């Protein structure tokens, strides 16, 4: 009875998350297709539009998390079924082949490039990169079934064989559908974030014209509850308050990252360069790969399929690079981060939470073991002794 109640609640949550995700996907597409003219909107209507966008984006974020969790659970179930007939590592590869994307989900230039309400691709003067990994899911399914039918444990009777065939087909379809919905929801969140950014800049332009701000982008110094008094009532925060926030942000941008473990109030700490030939982090994407490590610090840089991408941190704008590299080593992040999810989706070996990896590995031949979380240096010399 408890299991039945749990399944009923899970099904209700799944339906609600799918509905919210689909609404956000549809609404963001319409917003992108027909951009509103903001400079002629009265202040009250502009603020109402901003709050509506924030509400929709917040619902989309919650839905994206639920859809991602559901997709991961279905994918785990698919691997469990395949493990009945093939070893675990091969089952993982077959499961990845069954959910390979069939369509390219490209970002809009008007979307936030990295974080919702952050600078857009247009604002940064860059073009969003489009993922190029697409596949024929029907052909992949036929190949997987051919592999399974050749195993010793595959049912010989017609009815059990048909039932197992239908089960794998259903799980593969549901996992692929949810993974695609997750990516489309993430695209919608960033597009809604780009529209929020456009509204904020319009508010910033109006406050700049009044002399409240030095430039429109400084609208980010205001809190949400301060926008209405500043725009409608003519009661913005005091110049000294804005100057204090400006200096505080500048100091924070220069500080070292917080430690991984701490007690009480943490303070920033310099990242130490790891030593030794075997560096251990979190196993985020299974598989093993050998190649030359290459440190990237911006998503517009390029990476080869025979190289190991090394970065301090990533965001959704890095997706094309994460799907193109041979393996990835990220200093920050964990198994539930967006990069880790992409790594598992596309079978890219990945190790996360390895502070100092960028300085220790750049330009050196390495082996990335995504099953154990170990990165092994394949040479004995210092990084500067090798071409970058």
Low-confidence stretches: 383-388
**Strand runs, count:** 8
* Structural category: alpha/beta
Element pattern in H and E: HHHHHHHHEEEEHEHEHEE
Q: How many individual helices? A: 11
What form results from the Cα inertia axes?
globular
Question: What would you note in describing this structure?
Answer:
By secondary structure, the chain is of the alpha/beta class. The chain is built from eleven helices and eight strands. It has helices spanning 2-33, 43-82, 88-98, 121-124, 137-149, 158-209, 224-231, 239-254, 319-324, 338-346, 357-361; strands at residues 278-280, 282-285, 288-295, 307-311, 327-330, 350-352, 365-369, 374-377. It has an eight-stranded mixed beta sheet. α1 (2-33) crosses α2 (43-82). The chain starts with a helix and ends in an 11-residue tail after the last strand.
Topology:
Elements: H1 2-33, H2 43-82, H3 88-98, H4 121-124, H5 137-149, H6 158-209, H7 224-231, H8 239-254, E1 278-280, E2 282-285, E3 288-295, E4 307-311, H9 319-324, E5 327-330, H10 338-346, E6 350-352, H11 357-361, E7 365-369, E8 374-377
Parallel strand pairs: 3-4, 4-5, 5-6
Antiparallel strand pairs: 1-8, 2-6, 3-7, 7-8
Helix pairs in contact: 1-2, 1-6, 2-3, 2-6
Briefly characterize the structure.
51% of the residues lie in helices and 9% in strands. The protein has 388 residues and is an alpha/beta fold.
Search tags:
388 residues; alpha/beta
